[in-house]
What we know:
alpha+beta
Amino acid sequence: MPSKALSFAATATLLAGCTVGPDYRPSSPAALGVPDGYSVSAQPSAEDLTRWWQRFDDPLLQQLVEEAAPQNLDVAQAVTRLRQARESLVQQRANFLPGLSGSGGYSRRQVLRGGTQQTQLPDGTIIETGQGSTDNFSLNLDASYQVDLFGGIRRGVEASRAQFDASRFEYATILISIQSEIARNYILARAAQAQLDNARASLALQDDNLEIAGFRVQAGLVSSLDVEQARSQRAQTAATVPSLEASYNSAVSRLGVLTGRAPGALKGTLQQPRPIPRGPDTVGVGIPADTLRQRPDIRSAERQLAAATAQIGVVESQLYPALRISGGINTAAGAIGNLGEIITGTLFGGLSQLLFDGGRVRSQVRGAEAAADGAFLAYRQAVLTSLEEIENALVALQTAQARAREFTAAFEAANASALLARAQYRAGLTDFTTLNQTETQLLTARNSLTTARSDEATALVQLFTALGGGWDESALPDGIARPAPFSGAD
Length: 490
């Protein structure tokens, strides 16, 4: 008998080494359509962009971006999904272990009038008693185990592990997206402040021009047309201030929400104007194949493909025999102290095989294969989209830098022209129309330069994000502990 049991166990172990379904193998860059180099001008050397915001010379920007991970609510929700994925993995791993349950019971039978009473215990023993009472105590322990003959459980754990890893990379994807949005809104807020300063500086000059025009009209040197033109120009400039203030308020309110605060929480913090943050002139982007490692959204898509591939084996294992072993230990006695005297045990092994289901499981296999094909296409799409974003960011940065250089020259020329026209108007050597045109050109040049510098900083943030900067794989949460108190129902 022992030899038969050993032979049965050895056969089960051997069968348990079989794993149905395809084994996942990572795709090569060529299979994903990754070219050897970018189609636009790019610096081939790679850089560490884990904390890219430190490359902007702005401590407040650095502080706000670093608050994204612990305070942003979208990031916090990503952590909860990560915790769920981890628990799903724990549940799948539990399928490797046997199930164990226990029960106990007590009963009393009372004979109220004469005669005899027979009580049969679970082991078959019959106890005969007269008038009085009979006690019965029992304990039962049952165990069951699903032998993973063809790797269905292993494939399930493999799929859950890949899903858990994908959740970690999805967390990183959300994190760097929030970091980018914080930096972009901070730049918008500083740009709005700069344009407000431009408008107020122009209003101060236009107030001076209006006063000079009034004096000259009173002196009979010019007609009232100069005064009306001065009033019109000032009103048009003043009309831009409310919209600029609205843009500033919108950016600051968004920053408050992105950092887990009320919309107006940062208005006092950003009240003091500061220049638009300026980053490095060039960034090393490496080669296109680097994105497979740097971008968390690509890493997440790759893990989703691995999970879909493993899921094929989970479904396919239903086509093969399933072996379940169960057993139990029971004891019963008339007194609790006698429970250990008689112990019985059972052991049962059952083998089941699907014979006919109308093609349902085979259809599920084909569906799982289609899902894996779709996951591969999504993976490839993520790769190509990332390369597109990098090239667009590179071009946006280069064109913004070129515009900034040209607008700097235009501003310097417009400023010199306005100074000359103002001096000539004061001396009566030119008319107000000429002064009005030069003042308008100066304000336009100032705002154009501000916009170009804002676009340059925004494009730099866009490039850092497209390259996958802003996260560290070794610092990703593992989904074990709660990161913050939960106010919902426990």
